[in-house]
Design brief:
Elements: H1 2-30, H2 40-47, H3 54-71, H4 77-108, H5 116-129, H6 135-155, H7 162-302, H8 309-351, H9 356-452
Helix pairs in contact: 1-3, 1-4, 2-6, 3-6, 4-5, 5-7, 6-7, 7-9, 8-9
Organism: Clarias magur (Asian catfish)
InterPro entries: Syncoilin (IPR027702)
Keywords: Coiled coil
């Protein structure tokens, strides 16, 4: 904000100086060099552009006060304020020199103000010696003095001598020079106060910088400790991950082994259940076979012995063929069962090398069961053949029975049809008999009637 304010003030000051120089040029153009001095009102109108108005003077004073207040501020902006002050002085000195040169040119053209260039030259030298350090205050004082001179010149009569004017100008310039020196002294005092105020701030800044360096050192140390802790944490996480991985692997192997044991137990139970089921099926087949043999024997006793030898020979050949087919089917089923269970037993033996003894026991038990199953299978085959033979025989008997039933049905249908025909013929005969009796009665009545006549 201070920088912006200083820039704005400098621009306003520069515009006002440019406006003053423009007014001076306009005055030079408007003044008639050959015309004598006229009335005070005319002189006032002609000379007014040379001076700054009261409003502009107040504005200049406000700007100078703002500049002094901005320059008096402590802190980091002091350096920038000093730089701005130096640049303002340099540029303002150039503008003042240009303005004084224009005034010199203007005064050389007027005989009534012939002593003004000497005074301005003396003032320019004084300002050059003082390096125009407080040129803003000088402008305001010069403006006031020139305004006073203008008012006095306008009120005096035209007959006043040039010596009075020169004396008044000299006194006004001396007062202005004294005011400038006083302001320069005041500025030096303010600069000293500013430097004195800057010293504790510099000490505090130095202390703060030392504290900041200590804080940076502590921060670097803390960062190193943090990095070491992060490395240790990362190493610990790796070890923990390896331990967790090993634990998970061991748990997986344990669960797999438990599942394999459960599967072995389940398969053992299934095999036991299958053996028990086979035993039950064999016993059931044996019972059914006995019952069927008994029933067939009873049926065979009741069947007549009128069948020919050719029929018996074909019947025996068909029964043998059926028995052979049944035997082949049973052998295929047995082979399928053997092919289904033996690979599973071998796979279980390979997977469970640690439990070889138990598997050997199971295998021995399986072998025992197979040895026990051999005669049972033979018995089953025999019973199967006998069953097939009996089933074939039953099938033939059922077929023969069906044929007999069909024949019986045909004979029954034929007899029923013949009975229906006989019934109809009987009804016809009965009707004919009734008609004959009625005819006989009618003839008897007529004969009786004729006899009486």
């Amino acid at each position: 904000m201070e920088k912006v304010q200083l820039d704005a003030l400098w621009l306003d000051l520069r515009s006002k100086l440019q406006l003053a120089s423009n007014k001076l040029k306009m005055a030079e153009e408007d003044i008639d060099f050959g015309e004598p001095r006229g009335s005070p009102s005319k002189l006032e109108e002609k000379d007014n552009p040379l001076f700054i108005e009261e409003d502009d003077e107040e504005y200049f004073e406000d700007c100078l006060e703002d500049i002094e207040a901005a320059l008096a501020l402590p802190g980091d902006s002091m350096t920038y304020s000093q730089k701005c002050q130096e640049t303002l002085h340099a540029e303002f000195n150039v503008l003042m020199r240009q303005m004084l040169a224009q005034l010199d040119e203007f005064e050389t053209t007027h005989e009534t103000k012939s002593t003004l260039p000497a005074l301005f030259t003396e003032r320019e030298n004084r300002l050059g010696a003082n390096c125009f350090e407080d040129s803003a205050d000088l402008i305001s004082d010069t403006t006031e003095s020139m305004a006073v001179f203008d008012l006095e010149g306008s009120t005096d009569e035209p007959g006043l001598s040039a010596s009075m004017e020169l004396k008044e100008l000299g006194t006004s310039f001396e007062s202005l020079i004294e005011e400038v020196s006083r302001l320069e002294h005041r500025k030096e005092e303010l600069v000293q106060e500013l430097l004195e105020l800057e010293k504790p701030m510099q000490d505090e800044t130095h202390a703060l910088r030392c504290e900041l360096e200590e804080a940076h050192k502590l921060l670097a140390k803390a960062m190193l400790q943090r990095q070491s802790l992060l490395d240790e944490t990362r190493l610990f996480k790796r070890r923990l991950f390896a331990a967790a991985r090993d634990c998970a692997h061991s748990q997986m192997t344990l669960t797999i082994q438990q599942k394999e044991v459960e599967q072995l137990k389940q398969e053992q139970d299934e095999m036991k259940a299958f053996v028990e089921k086979l035993i039950e099926v064999i016993s059931q087949l044996h019972c059914e076979h006995q019952s069927q043999v008994q029933t067939l024997q009873n049926q065979m006793d009741n069947v007549t012995q009128e069948s020919s030898k050719d029929d018996t020979h074909s019947y025996l050949s068909q029964s043998r063929r059926a028995s052979l087919d049944l035997q082949q089917y049973l052998q295929g089923e047995i082979k399928a069962l053997e092919e289904f269970y033996e690979p599973r037993l071998v796979a279980l033996l390979k997977r469970r090398q640690s439990s070889t003894d138990a598997l050997m026991k199971y295998r021995e038990q399986c072998q025992d069961l197979k040895t026990k199953l051999g005669p049972l299978k033979e018995e089953e085959q025999r019973l199967g053949l006998e069953r097939a033979r009996l089933e074939e025989r039953i099938h033939l008997m059922e077929k023969q029975r069906k044929e007999n039933v069909e024949q019986y049905r045909e004979t029954i249908d034929r007899l029923e049809e013949s009975s229906r025909e006989l019934k109809t013929e009987l009804r016809i005969q009965i009707n004919k008999i009734k008609e004959m009796e009625e005819l006989k009665n009618s003839l008897a009545k007529q004969l009786y009637f004729y006899r009486q006549v």
